[in-house]
Structures are given as structure tokens and as C-alpha cells.
Amino acid sequence: MTALVETLKLRQYPIGIGRLIVWFFAAAGVAAMIARWAWGLGITTNMVDDRGWGIWISFDILTGIAISAGAFTLAAVVYIFNLKQFYPLVRPTILTGFIGYLLAASTLLVDLGFPYRIWHLILYWNVHSPLFEVGWCVMIYLSVLALEFSPALFERLGWKVPLRITRAITIPLVIFGIVLSTMHQSSLGTLMTIFPDKIHPLWYSKFNPIFFYVSAIGAGIAMIVMETHFSAQAFRYKFEGPILAKLVKAIPWVLGLYLVGKLADLVFSGKVQYVFAGGWPTVLYLIEILVGVVAPIYLFSKASVRRNRYKMFWSATLVVFGLLLNRFNVSLIFLDGAPYLPAWTEILVTFGLISIGIIIYDLAFRTLPVLQHAHE
Amino acid sequence: MTIDRRSFLKLAGAGLGGFAVTDLPKPSQPSLGPTDGMALLYDTTICVGCKACQVACKQVNGLPPETDEQGIYEMPNHLTGKTWTVIKLYQPEGDEPWSFCKIQCMHCQDPACVSVCPVGALVKESNGAVTYDTKKCFGCRYCMAACPFDIPKYEWEKNLPLIQKCNFCAARQAEGLNPACYDACPTGALTYGKRSEVIAIAEARIRDNPGRYVPHVYGKDEAGGTSMLYLSHVPFEKLGFPTLSDQPLPAVTWIYMKAVPPLIGVVGTLVTATYWFTHRKKGPESGLETGPKEESHDSAG
């Protein structure tokens, strides 16, 4: 009975200040996208010849895909490692991942000079290009995520046969998704290996593919915490605190591995002096490592943090912030090129896409059984 | 083979704990470039800065002029989406020697742009030219970022922008003609021929004219070698050339890219094995996507 009442409540679409802001930014973002298609990249962005990649690459692609890594991580935890207690988190996380990848792919439609040629990736191959591999993996993984989430849709529609089929192939899908994610999360790091002379030594590393992969897993878990917090707040659901508390125990291990790897790389590649060289590289490197890696390792290893919803949430934001700063440092701030600050249109597109993601998440949550089974 | 295995193991994460003990091996991939394509040698001591090459390039390739707000023709000071080659003047203060310098695509033997292009729009031709297929390009601009010489430029002002860069007059070469800039040069500052012969000429000039040149043929080995070669009487870094290792950049990325197929196998096998291991007691479960089913509800909740 209470479940029914809550379902009915969810079906409503109350117009509050938050929803107005989200819709405003979504509309502004779409307007900025149309402007970009109408007038071209030169007028609507601050990108120039010596700075051909801006925030759309650093944020929407590199950061967006990395923080969507929670989907494959949690799928592995639940389905492969058979830790069923985390099951209630699966559907919201898969949904978040799906939206994250959808937004990253949508960014390409704005960033590419020829958006309508995006299918050239399928037609013309170059196996030497990391971007070729990333493109293919993202394309396939987007379909895998859609299939992984499709049972929620089929349940709502009452389609028995498709439901049975997707359930039957869940495990192969999950395995396939893990393989694809491992490949493209690391390949985003490979993308940066072609710049040995252009990236500051503190951020150019031959191990960037591994660093990108491991840090994405850490940030993916942190995103699960943030997303659970927000949706519990927005939809007045019970915050899955005890389950999350167990999940985030993995963060010190994942980020610990990352930290050891980063430090070992510094030492053995002879780059320690750059940490103490002063200036912006030193400042941003220390913030990235101390605030985004060391602090979360300490915080998430404390039971008092894991017991407290808000402490857990804010600690998770540090992890995501650290990843974001890392991706910006590698691909924008310390990648040689012309000085660059994003144009307001670029920022609007980014905020617009995030807002569209929130709208889709919100609608899916209200219309599909995203939490139902965990909630009853 | 050992390189394969070592880099592969590291990428597979097997060596995660000790992955900083050694650096990744130096790539030993042989050059994929043509063994003896054509090349151009530019000699700063012969160039008089007349810019005839620049004009000829515009004419032959149908490139629009650079104009100011009033539509008055201007001389570009760098490569742009409309200009594939420029002559620059390096003039330091004081009594230091000055120099002209011709800039255009270097036509690397192993071009980074060719290796990073996800749709294979850029190709290293057997005659040495790095050409660009406007029909394939979808505008990701990875080539612009990856080029160690920052050569590819973009038509930012256009709605459907293309990459712009020198194509070594590939079409003219195919017809048996010479590159337009070479034909236009009135002083012989440019030398055109087989790459090995051009390098031999450059080295002979250094040998026969002691003190005239910086004793280095720029482009012979830089980034694995280029089809544009330079002799200069002022240090190359003063002319804006980057100091690069002899390592072709595509070889760096290829270490990782060639590990992709085996890595797919390893990750897939490991994940599947883990699945069987964790599910060995109950046997394989179908329908793990439990949803609101009754029987799975217990295990989920």
C-alpha cells in the first residue's frame, strides 16, 4: 500500500525551483548547440589552431566517461564477484552510466567538425588510433548499457519475452561490458601517450592508460555515492547508507593502488623534482594528489565517515574532484598550446548536457521501476 | 617478442604492483614510412625571402588569400586554415645572425597525425607525401593536437571545417610534376629529390662548407625522420623547431594499441573465470537480473 502511494507520488512532476533551473540550463544548452551548428566552431567557441581541444574533450568526454565507470564496476561486483548485497544499487547505477555515455556521445555531435559523419568510425578503420578504439568501445558499450537497463523498461511495459531474453543474456552482457570498459577507460589514457613532448612531465606518463583505468574505478564508486545521495533526496527514498558504507570500503584500496602507482612512476621516472619545482604545476599536482587521492583514502578508511551520509557524500565529491582536476591537467592545463578559457557557449553546452542528463534520469526514475525491487 | 610480453603483462595489470620497477621498453617498431620517397631540402643560407613559394602554393592549391577587415590582402605570419606554407624571418637584436625559414608540413616518415586519425583520413603515401582525404575526415582534431610540429590548421570560421595543411603537391607529383614551391624558388634554396639523395646532398654541404651551417640536418632523424629537411646557419630552436627525440610518435602509442586484442582475451577470460569461481557452489544462475522476482528477492534484499 505504501509502495503504491509512493509510486503515485513519483508519477507527479512537481515544478520546483530546482526543476526550473535544470530545465532552464537544458534549454540554454540546446540553444548554444544550435548556435554552434548554425555559426560553426570558430565563432561559438574559444578553440583555436593551437588549442584544438577544449572543455568538451576534457570534461564531457574524458571526465564524463571516467565517472560513468561505476556502471561496469558495480556490475562486476554484483554479478561477477557475486556480492549480492549491492544489488539494490545496480539499476540506478546502470542508468547513470547509460546517461553518462549518452552525454559523452552527444558531445561529439557538438565537438566534431562534421557531426553527421560520426558513422565514419564504422566505415573507415584505423587500428593505430586510440580514438578509434575509444569510439568503438563507447559505441558498443552504450548498447550494452541500454540492454542491461532494458529489463526495467520491459517490466514496466509488461513485455515478457524480451524480458526473458535480456535476463538470460545478463551475464554475457556484464562480462562484455567489463571487457569494453577496461579497454576504453585505459585507452582514454592511451590517447594522451602521443604527447610526450607536449604534456608537463608530472602528467605525462607511460602508465597513463593504467592510471586512467584505476582512477576511473575509484571515481565511478564515488559517483555511486553522490548519485544515491541526490536521488534519495530528490525522490524521498531511503538512503542506502549501510550498503554504500560497505561499497566505499573499496575506495581506499583502489585509490591506494593508484597513489602507489603514481608515486612509483614519479620516483622511477625521475620526476620527483617537478613536484617541488614550484609554480602552478606544483600547486595543481599537490591539490590533485592530496585533496583528490590522499584525503579520500584517509576519510573512507574511517568508520565514522562511512556511517555518516553527509561525510560520505562530501568525501566522494573529493574523489570526483580529484579525477576531474587530473583529466583537466593532463588534457588541457598542462598540454602545450595556446592559452584558453572556454567561451560561454561551450560552458552552456556542457551545463545543458548535464541538465538534460538530470532530466532523463528524473523521468526514468519516475516512470520505470528503477528502485522498485530494492524498495518494496 | 619480449617487448610484446613485457608491455602486455604490464597493461594486463599483472605487473600492477611492480609496474614502476622498469620503464616501458623503447619501441623498436621499424619505420613504416617509405624507404625512399621524395624529399625537399630547404637551405636558410640560400633563401632570399622572396615568398615566391608561398604565392605559388596558394595558386596551385587554390587557397584563398588572407585579408584584413577591409578585404585588403595581408601577409600571414603563420600557417592558417588558408595558408599551407609561409616564409618567416628570424631577426634577433644585436649582431646575431638573422635568417629566413620556410614552414610547412614536415611530411614525417612515421606521422603522428596519420596514426591518431580514427577514420584514416590522413595517409603517408609511398612518394613521401602525407595526404588528407576531405571525404573521410569528421573533424575530431586529434591530428592537430598530436602533430609534434603543430602543422595542421583548421577552418574554424567555416560551418563544416576541414583540416588544412601542405600535401607535398601529391597530385602534381603523381603527374610527374614537381612541388609548386620548388618550381617557384628562384635561388635554389629548395632541393627536391629522393630522400636518401637529398640527405646526402645536405650532408655534403655541411662537410664542404665548414662553419657555414649548424652541423645538423634537421629532419633526418627527428621524430623518426621527415621528408622536409633543413640546413641552417642559426640554431634550429631559434627558428621555432622543436627539439625532438628520434623516436617516431606512432610507435609509442602502438605499444598500447597492439596489446588491445590480447588484452580483450585476458580480461574476458579472467572475468569469466572469476564468475565461475564465485558461482561454483550454486551452479550457473540464469536470470541474475533479478528484478522484482520472488525467488531472487531474498538474495537481493
Describe the structure.
The complex is a heterodimer of chains A (376) and B (301). Chain A has two domains: 20-46 and 341-358; 47-340, Up-down Bundle (Formate dehydrogenase/DMSO reductase fold). Helix content of chain A is 75%, strand content 0%. With 376 residues, chain A is mostly helical. Chain B has 301 residues and is an alpha+beta fold. The radius of gyration of chain B is 26 Å and the shape is globular. A three-stranded mixed sheet of chain B has the order 8-1-9, covered by helices on one side. Chain B has a two-stranded antiparallel ribbon with strand order 2-3. In chain B, strands 4-5 form a two-stranded antiparallel ribbon. Chain B has a single domain, classed as 2-Layer Sandwich (Alpha-Beta Plaits), CATH 3.30.70. At the A-B interface, helix 2, helix 3, helix 5, helix 7 and helix 8 of A face helix 3, helix 4, strand 6, helix 8 and helix 9 of B.
Average pLDDT number of chain A: 93
Residue-averaged pLDDT of chain B, rounded? 86
Number of helices in the DSSP assignment of chain B: 10
- CATH H-level superfamily of the largest domain in chain A: Formate dehydrogenase/DMSO reductase domain
Stretches with pLDDT under 50, minimum 5 residues of chain A: none
Rg over alpha carbons of chain B: 26 Å
What is the CATH level 1 assignment of the largest domain in chain A? Mainly Alpha
Q: What does the overall shape of chain A look like?
A: globular
CATH topology of chain B: Alpha-Beta Plaits
Largest sheet of chain A: none
The run of helices and strands of chain A is HHHHHHHHHHHHHHHHHHH
Separation, N- and C-terminal Cα atoms of chain B? 50 Å
